C-alpha cells in the first residue's frame, strides 16, 4: 500500500472513531452542563443547595463506575476485537441518554425520578469506560509509532468537542424556546436529539474494519485467553498500571475536570454569572484551545510525553487559586456605589406571610446596570412587623443573573482558555503514552483501567467534591480547589520521579 493510501486510511479511521467518541462525550456531558436545572426537576422544590449537590453526586456516579466498564469492555475488546466492543458501548450510551430525556420529574413520580436517572448514569459510565480505550487503541494500532502522539491526539479532541457540542445545543435550544420553557421541559431536547447522532455514528462504525494489529494476533492465534489475569496478575504489567494511574492519569483527570467543568460550575453557581454568559465563556475558550491537543500530541512524538504532561499539572497547581480569586473579585458587586450605577429598573416587590403571625417577608428585586457595562439582579429582603410597623433586614443583598462587561467577559474567556490549555498539555499525549506502556494482546484492558480510574474517579469527582468542600462551615469559595491541587501535586511528584521520558519507539513493542 502506498504512503498516500495509508495516510488516507488513517484519517478515515480517526474520523470514524472520533465521531462516535465525540457523541459519547456529548451524551455524557449534557447532564453535567445542566446540573442546576436537572436538580430542580429531580428533587423537591424546597431542597435548595442540596439539590445541586445531589445532582452532582449522580453525575459523579457515572464516573465512579467507569473503571468497571473498563474491565468489562476492555476484556471484551482484547477477546473479540476493538471494533465490535466500542460499537456496543455506543449503543448503550446513546440509549441511556435518550431515556434520561424521557424520565418524568420529581413532581410526577417522586424519588423514583432521581433513582431512574442514577441507574441510567451508571449505564452511561460503564459504556464510556469501554469506549475511550477502544477508540484510542484502535487509532494507535493503525498509526506509525513515530507519529502515534499526533494521530491519537485527534481522539483527545473529542472529549472537549463533545462538551463544546453539548453546550452549543443547550444554548441554542434555550434561546429558541425561552428560558422558562427550557427550565420546564426544554432541557430534555438535548438528551433526545442524541439518538439521531448515535444512529449516524453506528452506521459509520459498522463499515469500519478491525485493527490490523489485533487481526494479526487473531490470525496467529495469540489473542489473550484471559486479559484480566494477564493484565493484573503479571507483576511487571500491574506495576505499569499503577504507575500510569498515580503518575499520569490521576493528575491529568483533575486538571481536565477543573478546567472544563468546575470552571463553568464555579462561574455560574458561585459567581452567579448569567446562564448564557457562563456557557459562552466556556464555548469561546474551548474553541481557541482545542487545536492545542494536536499540537502537544504531535510535539510529544519529538520530545517525549512525560514533561509536557507534568508541566500542565504544575501550572494548574500554581495558578488555580489566583485565577479563581479573579473570578470572585470581578463578580463582587457588594461594593458598588451610586456613582457606578447607570440605571436601575423599577423594583418588583413580593410579600410572603410568615407562618403563625401577621409579619411578612418582603423581597424587592431590581435589575441594575453599571457604567462599566456589567449588570445584575439585586434582591433585598426584610421582615415587616405588622403591629409595630417596622422592618428588619433578613439577609444581605443577593446578586444573581450577572452579565459581565465586555472587558471582564473576555478576561474570563482568557482565564478559562488558560485552564483548557493545561488540559491539552496533560491530555493531548496521554493516549499515546498509555498505548506504549502495554503489549497489544492486553492493551485494551491494561490501558483502560488506569485511564478511567484517574479520570472517572479522581477527575470526575472534582465538581462534586470541590462544591461539597466549599459548602462546609468555615470554608471559603476557593476551598474546593484544594482537592484538584492536592491530587495534581501528588501525581506530579510520582510522575517526575518514576515516569520515563523515552521518545516513542520506531517499532511496536
Automatic annotation (TrEMBL):
Any Pfam family hit: Sugar_tr
Compartment(s) of residence: Cell membrane
Record keywords, A-Z: Cell membrane, Membrane, Transmembrane, Transmembrane helix, Transport
One example GO MF annotation: transmembrane transporter activity
Membrane topology label: Multi-pass membrane protein
Highest taxon of source: Bacteria
Main location: membrane
GO cellular component, one term: plasma membrane
Major facilitator superfamily (MFS) profile domain segment(s): 13-503
TM region(s), chain numbering: 21-43, 49-72, 84-103, 109-129, 150-173, 185-206, 240-259, 279-300, 307-324, 408-435, 456-475, 481-499
Name of this protein: MFS transporter
Organism: Pedobacter steynii
Amino acid at each position: 500500500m502506498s504512503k498516500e493510501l495509508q495516510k488516507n486510511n488513517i484519517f478515515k479511521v480517526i474520523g470514524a472513531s472520533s465521531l462516535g467518541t465525540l457523541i459519547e462525550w456529548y451524551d455524557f456531558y449534557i447532564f453535567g452542563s445542566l446540573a442546576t436545572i436537572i436538580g430542580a426537576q429531580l428533587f423537591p422544590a424546597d431542597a435548595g443547595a442540596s439539590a445541586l449537590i445531589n445532582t452532582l453526586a449522580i453525575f459523579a456516579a457515572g464516573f465512579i463506575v467507569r473503571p468497571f466498564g473498563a474491565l468489562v469492555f476492555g476484556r471484551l475488546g482484547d477477546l473479540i476485537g476493538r471494533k465490535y466492543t466500542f460499537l456496543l458501548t455506543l449503543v448503550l450510551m446513546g440509549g441511556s441518554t435518550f431515556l434520561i430525556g424521557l424520565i418524568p420529574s420529581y413532581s410526577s413520580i417522586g424519588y423514583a425520578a432521581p433513582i431512574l436517572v442514577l441507574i441510567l448514569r451508571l449505564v452511561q459510565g460503564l459504556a464510556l469506560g469501554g469506549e475511550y480505550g477502544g477508540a484510542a487503541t484502535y487509532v494507535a494500532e493503525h498509526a506509525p509509532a513515530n507519529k502515534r502522539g499526533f494521530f491519537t491526539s485527534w481522539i483527545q479532541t473529542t472529549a472537549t468537542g463533545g462538551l463544546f457540542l453539548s453546550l452549543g445545543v443547550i444554548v441554542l435550544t434555550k434561546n429558541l424556546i425561552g428560558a422558562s420553557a427550557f427550565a420546564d421541559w426544554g432541557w430534555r431536547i438535548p438528551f433526545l436529539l442524541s439518538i439521531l447522532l448515535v444512529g449516524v455514528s453506528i452506521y459509520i462504525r459498522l463499515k469500519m474494519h478491525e485493527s490490523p494489529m489485533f487481526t494479526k494476533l487473531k490470525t496467529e492465534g495469540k489473542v489473550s485467553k484471559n486479559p484480566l489475569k494477564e493484565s493484573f496478575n503479571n507483576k511487571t504489567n500491574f506495576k505499569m498500571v499503577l504507575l500510569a494511574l498515580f503518575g499520569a492519569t490521576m493528575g491529568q483527570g483533575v486538571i481536565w475536570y477543573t478546567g472544563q467543568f468546575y470552571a463553568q460550575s464555579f462561574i455560574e453557581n458561585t459567581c452567579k454569572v448569567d446562564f448564557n454568559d457562563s456557557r459562552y465563556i466556556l464555548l469561546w475558550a474551548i474553541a481557541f484551545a482545542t487545536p492545542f491537543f494536536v499540537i502537544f500530541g504531535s510535539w510529544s512524538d519529538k520530545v517525549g510525553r512525560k514533561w509536557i504532561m507534568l508541566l500542565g499539572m504544575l501550572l494548574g497547581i500554581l495558578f488555580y487559586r489566583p485565577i479563581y480569586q479573579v473570578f470572585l473579585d470581578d463578580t463582587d458587586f457588594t461594593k458598588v456605589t451610586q456613582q457606578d450605577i447607570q440605571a436601575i429598573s423599577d423594583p418588583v416587590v413580593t410579600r410572603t406571610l410568615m407562618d403563625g403571625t401577621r409579619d411578612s417577608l418582603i423581597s424587592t428585586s431590581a435589575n441594575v446596570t453599571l457604567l462599566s457595562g456589567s449588570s445584575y439582579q439585586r434582591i433585598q429582603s426584610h421582615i415587616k412587623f405588622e403591629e409595630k410597623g417596622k422592618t428588619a433586614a433578613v439577609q444581605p443583598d443577593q446578586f444573581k443573573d450577572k452579565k459581565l462587561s465586555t472587558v471582564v467577559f473576555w478576561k474570563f474567556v482568557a482565564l478559562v482558555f488558560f485552564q483548557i490549555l493545561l488540559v491539552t498539555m496533560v491530555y493531548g499525549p496521554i493516549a499515546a503514552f498509555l498505548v506504549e506502556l502495554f503489549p497489544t494482546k492486553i492493551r485494551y484492558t491494561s490501558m483502560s483501567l488506569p485511564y478511567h480510574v484517574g479520570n472517572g474517579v479522581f477527575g470526575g469527582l472534582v465538581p462534586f467534591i470541590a462544591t461539597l468542600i466549599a459548602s462546609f462551615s468555615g470554608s471559603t469559595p476557593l476551598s474546593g480547589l484544594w482537592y484538584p491541587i492536592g491530587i495534581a501535586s501528588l501525581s506530579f511528584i510520582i510522575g517526575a520521579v518514576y515516569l520515563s521520558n523515552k521518545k516513542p519507539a520506531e517499532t511496536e513493542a
